[in-house]
Amino acid sequence: MCGIIGAVSNSNVLPVLLGGLKRLEYRGYDSSGLAVINEPGKFLRLRAPGKLVELERAVSANGEISGLTGIAHTRWATHGPPTEQNAHPHISGGRIALVCNGIVENHEELRTLLTDEGMEFQSETDTEVIVNLIFLHMDKGSDFMTAVRTCIGSLKGAFALGIVNADEPGRIIGARRGSPLIAGIGEAGVYLASDISAMIAQTRKFIVLENGDIADIRQGKIEITNLDGQLQNRDTRISDLKPQAMEIGDYRHYMEKEIFEQGQAVSDTLEGRITASRVLEACFGTEAERIFDKTENIQILACGTSYHAGLVAKYWLESVGMPCQVEIASEFTSRKHPTPKNCLVVSLSQSGETIDTLTALDYAKHCGYAHSLAICNVPDSSLVRNSELILMTHAGPEIGVASTKAFVTQLVALRLLSIIMARKNSSSDLDEADSIRELRELPANVESTLELEPAIQEIAQQFANKQHALFLARGIHFPIAMEGALKLKEISYVHAEAYAAGELKHGPLALVDQDMPVVSVAPNDAQLDKLKGNIEEVRARGGKLIVFADSETRLSSRENLQVINIASVESSIAPIIFTIPLQLLAYHVALIKGTDIDKPRNLAKSVTVE
Ligand code: F6R
Q1: What is the Å distance from ligand 1's center to 216 Cα?
Q2: pLDDT of 97-118, one tens digit each?
Q3: Is the pLDDT of residue 245 over 90?
Q4: 126 forms bridges with which residues in the sheet?
Q5: In this predicted structure, what is the pLDDT of residue 579?
Q6: 171-180: average pLDDT
Q7: ∠408-360-78 over CA atoms, to 5°?
Q8: Cα angle at 284 between 278 and 289, to 5 degrees?
């Protein structure tokens, strides 16, 4: 959560900082701030509660803000509400300014210690202890770098820091423990940021800081050391991120753009991974064949939408004889469990920086799980760097907080994995060539499903005054219903819950009345007759149903039942196709409700706190 950008440049850094914050705003958007050294020994700082536009207003109102060194931050509040005082950068003694992404776990203890030393606090944040501690060490005679090192040595928690000293313009110190941080090398300057998107207008050349790294960033020189001051060698990388991939174009929202990019995203994720009749195992990594050959079961770990992708994969993998467990990453670490033999841990994440997923992967390794595979959308992310096998989803940058194209491409990647696992199991009857053909047809099927938008737009009106909604499905489509409910609640704030349709009569049916819209997906599969029965149970109680149905199901609209037909698709890819109308429904309900679709309240895209 929280985004950091810092720059040392040969021209005013203000546009770099504001441009960087704009690209980082997806990481947190409840307040923002910046500080520049406008003359040696002097900071200019501006902070504003609310979205970045408030900071931009403050900047315009403040006339000339300029300096060649500066740091900036967009916040997702953890400690202290999103007020100006709690916004970063925090400054201590007028000399040290600091931005932080993460949490200092021992902040209370440090606050007491610093207060005993006579230091005063201006905010309720945990971050302020860091800047005060650095200042205290400097006040007692330490140089800037030594003060930073000593301070970091006494912090508990996971964080990324950007720190400047007003007396040393032209220098930023960055430090990483847990939360992501990169340093960039450009023609006009050097940079520090939470991710490459923040500095892509300045440079493509960057270094990923590892946990424990401290980067001393000066014009023309970046030196990376560890806490003990030993030099660390880190590769310089070149990002292939295209700035235009981040432009919104003619769309109203990034979410809309990302929903409509899904056909292309699926093609890009398949490209180079399949031949006419085979999935190329090597696309998971050079060790893939050896590891997959001995894999006896799979443990999937993920959060939120990615977790739903994992639940779909369980059906696919088990149908080809591969035992599979799926667990919410933050729950996986909450208990001891037996370590299965030859188990492949598959972690799913759009960002690759979700701390719960990273921690769960670490825990699995600690417990002795044999191997790891990351399915991820962000190259060079922590998850990718911590996994043995990798399959990148090529969804392109996903900026809307609600995940859409990342989910669909995760499903494609997981389908590829299932096909490989089927190949390894002689008793599986899955026909690989048929499965490949179905995947090849997928982009066109996605495109034609997107054409349902006008019909869905109309249906969305029915949700305008509703407070609650139920989503029902059976089998492999139950996780799709869960994903549909999550999309609706997170962007429209309509309370939505998904139930396995068979569970309805075990409790939730009590909620059904004419004010509770019930959304269902009805593929033409073995569960259909039972689902039809569940639909009737709702109708009999006056419930109003909206059913997205495969045209082969012959379900038709009648009283209290509105059916939207979807062109019939093979059951293997049906979960991917049925996702699309639910995304569009959530989008149009949110549009009617006038919520901030790309930045729903209280959320952030990259969840880097536990
Ligand atoms: C919901 C959503 C979240 C993320 C979750 C995990 O639309 O986007 O539920 O799926 O925070 O994020 P990643 O996939 O980046 O690990």
Answers
A1: 32
A2: 999 999 999 999 999 999 999 9
A3: no
A4: none
A5: 98
A6: 95
A7: 85
A8: 70
Q: How remote is the CA of residue 308 from the centroid of ligand 1, in Å? A: 10
Is the shortest distance between the CB of 607 and ligand 1 below 6 Å?
yes
Instruction: Give the integer Cα–Cα distance in Å for 219 and 184.
Output: 11
What positions carry a catalytic annotation?
A: 2, 605
Phi, psi of 457 (to 5 degrees): -55, -40
Nearest atom (ligand 1) to Cα of 357 = 16
The alpha carbon of 305 and the centre of ligand 1 are apart by a number of angstroms equal to: 5
Q: Judge if the beta carbon of residue 351 lies within 6 A of ligand 1.
A: yes
Residue type (1 letter), 90: H
Among 134, 243, 167, residue whose Cα is nearest residue 199 = 243
Residue 1 has pLDDT above 80, yes or no: no
**Do you know the residue count of the chain?**
610
Q: Are 496 and 489 contacting, i.e. CB atoms less than 8 angstroms apart?
A: yes
| CA–CA gap between residue 31 and residue 295 (Å, rounded) | 47
- CB of 403 within 6 A of ligand 1: the answer is yes
The pLDDT of residue 208 is 96
449 lines ligand 1 (CB under 6 A): no
Residues 247, 250, 253, 254, Cα dihedral to 10°: -30
Nearest C-alpha to atom 7 of ligand 1 is from which residue? 402
- What's the confidence (pLDDT) of residue 419? 98
Q: What is the pTM of this model?
A: 0.90
Binning pLDDT at 50, 70 and 90, where does residue 604 land? confident
| Ligand 1 atom with least separation from CA of 356 | 16
Band of pLDDT at residue 64, cut at 50, 70 and 90: confident
The one-letter amino acid code at 86 reads: N
pLDDT at 178: 86
- Of residues 475, 448, 466, the one with CA closest to residue 546: 466
Say yes or no: CB of residue 579 within 6 Å of ligand 1.
Answer: no
Query: What was the pLDDT predicted at 471?
Result: 98
Sheet with 343-349: strands ordered across: 324-328, 297-302, 343-349, 371-376, 389-392
C-alpha–C-alpha distance, residues 183 and 206, integer Å: 6
Whether pLDDT at 45 is above 80:
yes
